[in-house]
Design goal:
The structure holds two protein chains of two kinds. By secondary structure, chain A is of the alpha/beta class. In chain A, 38% of the residues lie in helices and 17% in strands. In chain A, β13, α9 and β14 (269-270) form a beta-alpha-beta unit. Chain B is globular, with a radius of gyration of 21 Å. The termini of chain B are far apart. The chains are: A alpha/beta, B alpha/beta. Chain A binds chain B through residues 38-49, 52, 66, 69-70, 72-73, 76-77, 84-86, 117-119, 337-338, 340, 350, 354-356, 358-359, 361-363, 365-366, 368-370, 372-374, and chain B through 49-59, 62, 74, 78-79, 83, 86-87, 93-95, 305-306, 308, 318-319, 322-324, 326-327, 330-331, 333-341, 344. Bound molecules: zinc ion (2 copies). One zinc ion (ZN) binds at residues 311-312, 315, 317, 319-320, 345, 348 of chain B. Chain B: InterPro entries: TGT (IPR004803), TGT-like_sf (IPR036511), tRNA_ribo_trans-like (IPR002616). Chain B: It catalyses: guanosine(34) in tRNA + queuine = queuosine(34) in tRNA + guanine.
Chain lengths: 417, 400
């Protein structure tokens, strides 16, 4: 894995992650986003519907919370998760937890972490964790970590312990890794912990950077755990400590405004779970990221849409990840009942090219499964296009313009109560 | 004179009989409808609310589906016929480019809605959404179906459970004939939308015969056999089917309503039916039941957790080409896409079964096909259902 940066603008990094996959045939542009899945399947989508999406990122994320309970099956299968799940040629990244789900706390010990699958809690030691990696056979995985410090008011002592434990887990993982032929060529990402305590964050970053890891995951900074100002500050402090030539993946952050702020704080990669959360609440992403010169009118229209869309939430209080955000429209709303426009005018996704808001509204109020399918297609497409626009903006010095587009019209007063 | 008659009979439907089985009453036809030609015998998947259980219209088209169903009662309630009309009909609303068949709404009302009452005017019921009393008359049913713009509309019939006997059955049969006439008169688009009559008469051969005599005198483009598949004895069921096809005109399509189990399909094709529909293949998919030539396979059962074969190694559907039983088994615990995979497979199974049936009729080997089909479906001869044995014997196929 090799990160080639082409530009760094005020902390934001533009580049390409090259040599991905065991044959090194894949690459991923940064800032970028991974493909979010449930057990290898993008929620609601079969491969046929997924393939209607152009320019999907080359990296698919799977989680041990989905996989752990099926270890015996995978062991018997022998050929790794990618083949088991019938995945096409994609880079496989294996993480511990599902970024769209909150895990209960209080189950971590010195020697174990727990993941929650459909059958309940599964406790993992480093040995079991590494045995899982050998059966999953990902291209990269994050090392085992004690990430339980994301809640407010976690004590300094607890945070320190989590940093120590996580480093110990990493050393153990690396030891097993280096002695496992099956894992040759597989990359490990180190986990940066430290809660909301700056010194611990820095310590965690510095120590992890000393280990032979391919990249870094910033853990415990997810949406809902702390305010963006603090997240930006901690993230920037951490990325300053990390080597320039290795990618940084920020876990649990997906809102477009937070993504933009964190890219400026030096983050390269995000998990792609946000479109799924939007889909689950029956909403469609509709924010503008068009930075072409004649985009002004379209943006105005979109903003009208959003203004009228009801109770929207702005930055401020800690956001609940399940709440509707400023970036989406609620298609269950009666106003869309007779609206025969596509979800987003000009969107090239399968849903927008073939269906209208009125139909989506109907599918949602009648609880039809196709609603989830079509929304997931659109939201995934819209979200990944946003990342494309972000890279384009960085390449053309238009990040400020993009931010104005995404966050609202210039001069528009923020709706802070 | 003959030209005049032909003009009068013109409807947006042509049935071309391509082949007839020399042994049974089976036939293979091309049914030409406004949106495309349909190869019969045909199974029609049911898309109740203007969508087929998580499957996109492109996927459905990709599976080779040429006609599917929408339910008038549901769509008339939500989103309502006015809105669908504005969306250029149900085709436009759901963006389906091929044919649609809509039911009359009557069956749903009688079976789903409590407090429905049937009078000569129509079916009276209370809306489950706003409590208002609504009358579904033959005229109203056709008016909604005209708005939906389906290629085939069904007459409103007086539905009686197939297990009911006595004067109510006769009353319903006569009323259905009167309602047919009202439906024919109410159809605003006879040049674009076909109206099918529904043969009633319960399990009483005389009543069925009387209904057939009357209805076949009407100028309708096709006939459905109704009032069956509602829990009656299979012995009664097949006898009513074969009686109906005996009297239905050869040159018009015959639609057997609510039938979709594989064995029933094969037997009823032998009895002369062309079209079938059933919610079963898609409904059962949601519970992880995959249809296979040897019956069904419960993907969620533990025995498939480590089974790395596809559902059916011979199946050409997108699910079987990519995924194993073991993966689908596990996916059921993580995501709804597992259901979509089984739904796709089950529709593919139904369509491919009918395709094989048609092919064997075209090639003059339908009786042999039946023998092979039954052998594959049942572990041994003594497990053949006796009604199927009898029904097939009645059309000269003696199961080995
Ligand atoms: Zn779209
Ligand atoms: Zn299949």
């Amino acid at each position: 894995m090799k990160l080639e940066l082409s530009r760094v603008v005020k902390g934001s990094r533009l580049g390409v992650l090259k040599g991905l996959g065991r044959m090194g045939q894949h690459s991923l542009e940064v800032p970028g986003c991974l493909v979010y899945t449930h057990f290898g399947t993008v929620p609601h989508l079969t491969q046929d519907t997924l393939r209607t999406l152009k320019n999907l990122p080359s990296v698919t994320q799977v989680t041990l919370s989905d996989i752990a309970e099926h270890q015996e099956v995978l062991e018997e299968f022998r050929d790794g998760f990618r083949k088991f799940a019938g995945l096409p040629d994609t880079v496989l990244y294996c993480s511990l937890h599902d970024p769209a789900a909150t895990s209960p706390t209080g189950y971590t010990t010195n020697k174990t972490v727990s993941v929650w699958g459909s059958g309940g809690r599964i406790e993992l030691t480093v040995a079991k964790f590494m045995a899982l990696q050998k059966t999953v056979q990902p291209d990269w995985y994050q090392s085992m970590a004690d990430g339980e410090t994301w809640q407010n008011n976690t004590s300094r002592k607890r945070v320190r312990k989590s940093v120590d434990r996580t480093l110990a887990h990493l050393d153990e993982c690396l030891l097993v890794h280096q002695n496992s032929q099956e894992l040759e060529g597989v990359e490990v990402f180190g986990m940066v912990e430290g809660g909301d305590i700056l010194e611990e964050r820095i310590r965690s970053a510095r120590e992890t950077a000393k280990r032979p890891v391919a990249g870094f995951c910033l853990d415990g900074l997810q949406t809902g755990s702390l305010q963006q100002d603090l997240r930006t500050q901690l993230t920037a402090a951490v990325t300053k400590e990390l080597p320039e030539n290795k990618p940084r993946l920020l876990q649990g952050v997906g809102r477009p405004d937070e993504v933009l702020a964190c890219v400026e704080a030096g983050v390269d990669l995000f998990e792609g779970f946000f479109p799924f959360q939007v889909t689950e609440r029956g909403c469609a992403l509709c924010f503008s990221f068009d930075i072409s010169p004649d985009s002004e009118r379209a943006v105005l229209e979109l903003n009208e849409e959003r203004d009228a869309a009801g109770d929207l939430q702005q930055n401020g209080d800690l956001d609940e990840p399940t709440k509707m955000t400023y970036f989406e429209m609620n298609l269950k709303d009666k106003r869309y009942q007779g609206d025969f426009r596509p979800l987003v005018e000009g969107c090239g996704c399968y849903c927008c090219k073939n269906h209208q808001r009125a139909y989506l509204h109907h599918l949602l109020v009648t609880n039809e499964l196709l609603a989830g399918v079509l929304l997931m297609i659109h939201n995934t497409s819209h979200y990944h296009s946003f990342f494309g626009a972000l890279r384009e903006a960085l390449a053309n010095d238009k990040l400020d313009l993009l931010k104005r587009r995404v966050l609202g019209r210039p001069g528009q007063t923020e709706r802070k109560e | 004179m003959s030209l005049k008659k032909a003009l009068k009979a013109a409807s947006p439907l042509t049935l071309r009989i391509v082949a007839e089985c020399q042994v049974t009453k089976a036939r293979a036809c091309d049914l030409i409808l406004p949106h495309c030609s349909v190869s019969t015998p045909v199974f029609m998947p049911v898309g109740t609310q203007g969508t087929l259980k998580g499957i996109t219209v492109d996927q459905l088209e990709g599976l080779g589906c040429q006609i599917c169903l929408g339910n008038t009662y549901h769509l008339g309630m939500r989103p309502g016929s006015d809105l669908i009309e504005k969306a250029s009909g149900l085709h436009g609303f759901m963006n389906w480019k091929r044919n649609l068949l809509t039911d009359s709404g009557g069956f749903q009302m009688v079976s789903l809605v409590e407090l429905s009452e049937v009078t000569e005017d129509g079916v009276k019921f209370r809306s489950p959404y706003d409590g208002k009393e609504i009358l579904l008359s033959p005229e109203k049913s056709i008016s909604i179906q005209n708005s939906l713009g389906s290629d085939i509309m069904m007459q409103l019939d007086d539905v009686v459970s197939s297990t009911v006997t006595g004067p109510r059955v006769e009353e319903a049969m006569h009323r259905s004939i009167r309602w047919l006439d009202r439906c024919i008169a109410a159809n605003k688009n006879p040049d674009k939308q076909n109206l099918f009559a529904i043969i009633q008469g319960g399990l009483n051969a005389e009543l069925r015969k009387a209904c057939l005599d009357e209805m076949t005198q009407r100028n309708v483009p096709g006939f459905a056999i109704g009032g069956l598949s509602g829990g009656e004895e299979k012995d009664d069921f097949w006898r009513m089917v074969t009686l109906s096809t005996d009297y239905l005109p050869r040159e018009k399509p015959r639609y057997l309503m609510g039938v979709g189990y594989a064995v029933d399909l094969v037997v009823c094709v032998a009895l002369g039916c062309d079209m079938f529909d059933c919610v079963f293949p898609t409904r059962t998919a949601r519970f992880g039941s995959a249809l296979v030539p040897w019956g069904s396979l419960q993907v969620k059962h533990k025995q498939y957790a480590k089974d790395f074969q596809p559902i059916d190694p011979d199946c050409q559907c997108p699910t079987c080409k990519r995924h194993s039983r073991a993966y689908l088994h596990a996916l059921f615990k993580s995501d709804t896409a597992a259901m979509h995979h089984i739904t796709i497979h089950n529709i593919a199974y139904q369509l491919s079964l009918m395709h094989s049936v048609r092919q064997s009729i075209l090639e003059g080997r339908f009786p042999e096909f039946i023998q092979m089909f039954m052998k594959r479906m049942f572990p041994s001869r003594d497990q053949y259902p006796s009604w199927a044995v009898d029904a097939l014997a009645s059309v000269n196929v003696k199961l080995e």
